[in-house]
Amino acid sequence: MPARDLPWPLLQTVAALADAPLTQIAERLREAIHPYLASSALVVFTEDCTGRPQKKAGEEEIISRVSITELEALRAALPYEAPWFGEAEIGGRSRSVLALKDAASHALLVLTDPHGAHPDHSTGLDWVSYLWGIAARRIQEKVADAPPSYLLESRAASAERVRVTAELTDLHSTTLETLLAALRSASLDDATARSTVTDLAVKALVGLRTLSYRTADMAQEPVAKAFERLREDLRPLTRFGGIEVEFIEPPLNGRALPGEVAHTARAIVRGLVLAMMEQPDVTRIRTQWDCDGENLLINIRDDGRGSLSVDAPSVGRLERRVEALNGRLHLEVMPGWGADVFVTLPLDAPTSRPGGDVAEWKLAERELEVLQHLVAGHRNRTIAFALGISENTVKFHVRNLFRKLDVGSRTEAIALAHSRGLR
Fold first, then answer.
1. Which of 205, 343, 357, 407 has the fewest beta carbons under 10 Å from its own?
2. pLDDT tens, 123-138?
């Protein structure tokens, strides 16, 4: 065939798709498919990419809300690898979709509100399947090659998911405490308690689901918005605890908080409020946020007997979370008058130093090597292979690291190492 007769636009589209980086592959695939089948949004779900299993393009209302649970349910329901048209829940509501599974990788392609733009609909589906096959192979090859750029992207996305999971755990704890408080409340009869608990559970489920799929919006939070979220989290709990919680607003024009600072601040306040509510004779708790441009300043005070102790396990765990962000927690106890807690969280990460500022931990050379591998996200088997030692020896060093760093998990060790500039 003469060169002038070749389908150059199609060949250029295929070439662009085959060369697409992972961060752009959804957009490139949607552009390639559009002449044959238009859609409101395109979502790729693949477990090959552990750091970012969803690749999305299209209407923000859909791609910001689509969940892994929805995609897993759709993939499990597909009877075969051929294109499937039907109704499925995507982005929180039922939508018309076209879904295709890749036989080799089990990756899933979903097109919402599909409508044919090609006069020959069957030919259009053939081209969609062909282009999807190229994209699926590209994803597999990119992950297999694992270049530094992909590893950095994957690690950052994984760290973000860890942070969101931690916040979900905190919210679940608050929700359960609220439900228990409502069920135990002597002021509610059985019917009212059931109705109240049902309403709380439904609201909590909606809130948890919304939170888990908006990680992109959590990189920075206005300080006033972050404080308002805290107040909303605690309001149901305070309704049934019989304790007045006063909220002193931060300045509206305060500097926006990095996501990890906003999350830690809310977790600290929630944890301290719960600890204070467990004390006898507490009737009022006051919490205040302020921002000096470099730090988030938190103050929480109760009017109890002053029995809250810095040695309490709950306070110790919160203090370690503060230290992981290079912050400070100070507790002043006034017998007969209550407890006053001051927390300072820096808004900027500490300046990185070569090898990190970890001298005070007095780590042996091998322990430091293991810690560096942990920070890089490596598993025990990978660390053992890299250092030429057994997995049992790696576990031995990890236990020593936990003891020397005074942490209880790999996540805490990694966060604390980051706070000291170890990368």
1. 205
2. 678 888 989 988 888 8
For residues 400-418, b (16+ Cβ closer than 10 Å) or e, as one string? ebeebbebeebbbbbbbbb
Tokens encoding 17: 């798709």
In which band, very low, low, confident or very high, does the pLDDT at 40 lie, cut at 50, 70 and 90?
A: very high
In order of their start, the domains of the chain are: 3-145 (3.30.450.40), 151-346 (3.30.565.10), 359-419 (1.10.10.10)
Does residue 173 contact residue 165 with C-beta atoms inside 8 Å? no
How far apart CA 117 and CA 416 sit, in angstroms, is: 54
In three-state secondary structure terms, 344 is strand
Is the CB of residue 172 less than 8 Å from the CB of residue 216?
Answer: no
Cβ within 8 Å of residue 301, ≥6 positions away: 285, 286, 287, 338, 339, 340, 341
- What are phi and psi for residue 284, nearest 5 degrees? -150, 135
Quote the tokens at residue 215. 């990680």
Contacts (Cβ under 8 Å, ≥6 apart) of 122: none
Q: What is the pLDDT of residues 63-86, one digit of tens each?
A: 888 887 788 889 888 877 788 999
Distance of CA 25 to the CA centre of its chain: 22
**Residue 401 exposure: Cα atoms within 13 Å on the Cβ side:** 26
Amino acid making up residue 232:
E
- Residue 82 CA to residue 365 CA, distance in Å, equals 55
Q: How many CA atoms lie within 13 A of 105 on its CB side?
A: 23
235 HSE (CA, 13 A, CB side): 9
Question: For the chain, what's the residue count?
Answer: 423
Is the distance from CB of 111 to CB of 84 less than 8 angstroms? no
Task: Identify whether the C-beta of residue 211 lies closer than 8 Å to the C-beta of residue 164.
Answer: yes
